[in-house]
Amino acid sequence: MAHPTGHAHAPASGPSGPPLPRRVSAEMLEVLAHRRSLPLRALVEPGPDAAELRTLLTLAARVPDHGRLVPWRFIVLEGEARAHAGDRFDALYARQNPDLPVSKATMWRDYLLRAPVTIVLVSRADPQAKIPLFNQELSAGAAGMALVTAAAALGFATQWLLKWPGRDPDAAALLGVAADERVAGFIHIGSPSEAPPDRPRPALSDVVSYWSAD
Ligand SMILES: Cc1cc2nc3c(=O)[nH]c(=O)nc-3n(C[C@H](O)[C@H](O)[C@H](O)COP(=O)(O)O)c2cc1C
């Protein structure tokens, strides 16, 4: 919203007014409280349709980003493209592993065909930028989490994996990932076919402390 002075942002100095009315979203809290990853084998059709995918990507692109560098991007693998990408991974994997058993010849094709849609999250952090590299990489992580959360809000399940295609630069290059970019995740999305119990979560007492001067 435009500021009355015509500036995009209110000045940082000056007195603050009373708090605006709080808008509590019980639905969002519910989604956050119950979201968990599902194993890839439990992700089934249907995946997000074109409009839902657009919503997911729009929300994933709405994350804190120091310096507005947009240090991440997304590559969508859906439909036939999954098999074609998988075939290329299999060919590269076979070259890297000459003794690969025949049973594993199509493992990456099979892997990519499991989820209806996979979004490859790419970090394109720039070490030459004035913004620290760490800040940029954290923004990519935030984009991944926003995507996963948005998918949960749409009723989809996800699993965020790296595995060999996410770790090997030559595999990434087959998807058009440049040498100065890095895959931050293969985020697999589909409908949940099961609702497994949650995994143990850390006790807050193990991860939270309240700092005080004494
Ligand atoms: C960046 C990143 C990469 C991951 N890569 C793998 C992986 O290659 N293999 C694996 O088994 N789990 C991997 N995981 C973990 C899975 O996503 C796991 O299912 C998830 O952490 C379960 O936690 P949740 O139920 O709270 O979502 C990765 C997680 C992150 C954040």
Can you tell me about this structure?
The protein has 214 residues and is an alpha+beta fold. It has a domain at 37-77 and 115-191: NADH Oxidase, CATH 3.40.109.10. Helix content is 38%, strand content 15%. It is built from eight helices and five strands, in the order αβαβααβαβααβα. It has helices at residues 26-34, 50-60, 80-96, 107-114, 133-153, 163-167, 169-174, 204-207, and strands at 43-44, 72-78, 117-123, 157-161, 182-192. Strands 1, 2, 3, 4 and 5 form a five-stranded antiparallel β-sheet that branches. It is globular. The model is unreliable at 1-7 (pLDDT under 50). Bound molecules: flavin mononucleotide. Flavin mononucleotide (FMN) binds next to β4.
Distinctive features:
214 residues, alpha+beta, NADH Oxidase, 8 helices, 5 strands, 38% helix, globular, disordered N terminus, binds flavin mononucleotide
